[in-house]
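Class prep. Write one:
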Amino acid sequence: MSGQSSALYSNNITKYLQLMVNKEKVFSCDLNDDVLKYSVITNEGNHVWQKMPVVPKPEKKPVVKSKKEEVAVDPYKERLSSCINIAIGLAAILGFGTLSPDPSFLNITTIFGLSVVVGYLSVWGVTPALHTPLMSITNAISGITSVGGLLLLGGGYLPGNFAQLLAAIAVLISSVNIAGGFIVTKRMLDMFRRPTDPPDFNYLFGIPAITSSLGLLASYFMGAIGVVQMGYLASSLCCIGGIAGLASQKTARMGNALGIIGIGSGILTALTALKFGGPLLIQSLGLLGIGGLAGTVLGKKVAVTQLPQTVAAFHALVGLAAVTTSIGSFMLDANPTNLHKIAAYLGTFIGGVTFTGSIVAYLKLAGFKTANWNLPMRQYLNLPLAVINLLSLIIVVISSSPALGVFLLTNAAFTSFLLGWNITNSIGAADMPVAITVLNSYSGWALCAEGFMLSNSMLTIVGSLIGSSGAILSYIMCRAMNRSLQNVIFGTWVAPKAEGDKKDKEIKEHQETTIESFVDNIVNSKNIIVVPGYGMAVGQAQGPIADISKLLNEKGIRMRFAIHPVAGRMPGQLNVLLAEAGIPYDVVFEMEEIN
C-alpha cells in the first residue's frame, strides 16, 4: 500500500505543476482555473488567495425503511405444510388417472412427467457460462418438429393436398433450424477452447452414429417393428445427454455431438417407421436436404455479435412448424379424439405465440425500433385474446364438425400471432434475455403438444426437456433481476394501473473521472475486476479489452471478469464474446463466484 500511496501522491503533484505551464511550455499561472484559484497564495508579489466557497449540498430526505418483524418459524408447521403439498400432488396424480382411463394417454402423460423432472435436473447442472450454447443446442434439438411433419407427409414427389403441404413446410423449416442450430452451437463452444486443451477427436462420434443408423436400417429391412420405439428412446436419451453435456467445458462439445446423433437417429427412425415409397421418400429427403443446406449456410455466415437475434429467428421457425403440423394433423384425422383436439389446439396456440414473439425479439435484438409497430389499444388486447382462445378450445372439443374445427384452429393461429407480437413487443429491451428464454420454453411446450397429438414419445420427451430448460433459465434470470417470472411470461395482461405517488428516493452524487485518472488507477492496481455489459456487446469492445488484459497480465496485474446473469442480450452472451476475444474462461466468473 505504501508504494501505491506514494505513486498516487506523486502523480497528483506532477499534474498540479503542469497546470502552471501553458501550451508553449512557458510558466503561466491562470488564476481563473478552479484548482489554482483556490490554492495559489501569492503571484508576482500580490496576495491572490481566495477562500473556496462552500456549496451547500441538497438536503437528503430521510428514507424510512420499513422494518419487517422477524417471525419465528415453527418447524412443525413448516414440515406439515410440505407434507400437505406432497399429499395434494399425489392425490391430483391419482385423480387424473381416475378421470382419464385411456391407457395410451396415461402412458404418454407418464413420459411427460418423468421428462420434465429429467429436464429440471439436467439444466440446473449447466454452468452459467454455457447458457448461450445451451439456448442454441436446445433450439437445434427443438427442430425435431421435423418428425411431426414427416409423420403427416403424403402425395408423391409433391404434397397431395393442403394438409400435406403444411406438413412439408414443417419439415423444411425445421431442418433449417436443426442444421443452423448445431453449427452455431459448435462455433460457440470452439471459442471456449484454450491452446492447452487436448484435442476432442470428434470424428470418433461417427462410430455410435453409424452403429445407430445401420441398426435402424437393418431392422427396417428385417421387418422388426419393435425397434421403432427403441429408436425413439435412443434418440431421446442422446438429446438428454446433449443438454447434460453442457454441465462443464470439458464435456460441452461431446454434448453437441450427442445432440446431433439424437436428432439424426430420430429422423431416421421416423423414416423407417413410415416405410415411404420411392416418390414420397424423395420428397422427404429433398425437404430435409434443402432446409439443412440453408441452415448450414446461415449457421456459418452469421457473425458472433448476431448470435442472439439468430437464435430468436430459429425459435420463430420452430413455432411456425408447430402451427402447420398441428393444423395439418387435425385436417388429416377424420375422427379426432378429444386428446387430439386439445393437443392440436394447444400446439397451434403456443406455436403461434412463439412464432410472432420470436420475430419481435429478432427485430429488437437486431436494432429495429418496434415501438412504432404497436397494435392499436395494445394494453387492452391480451386478456380478450386469451379468453377468445379459451372459449374456442372448448368449442373445438365439444363440436363434431371438421369444418368448424379447422376454422377455429385457423382463428387460434391468427389470434396467437397477435398475442405473441403484443406480449413480446411490450417487453423492454433490458428484459430481452428473459424474453428469449421464455420463447425457448414456449417452443418446447409446443413440441410437447405435438407429442400428445401424434402419440409420439420422442416428441413428448424432447419437448418437455426443452420446455423445462427454458423455464428454469427464465427463473434464474428473473431471480437475478428481482423480477417475477409470472410478470415476464404473461406480459401486460390487463390495462396498466395508474401510478401511485412515487416514494422518496435517496439522492446520490455521481463520480466523474478522466482518461488519465482512469489509466493511473489501472496501472497502480494489483487486482482488477471488470464487469462487462450490453455496451461491450454493442461496441464490440471485447478485442481491445482482451489486449488490455494481456498487457496488464504481463506487468503482473491480475485482471478478472464478473458476469451478471442477465448482462448482454441473451443468457451467457458476454461469456461467448470474451471467449471469442481469447480471454480464457478460468478468469471469467459469475457474480456469486467472485463475490
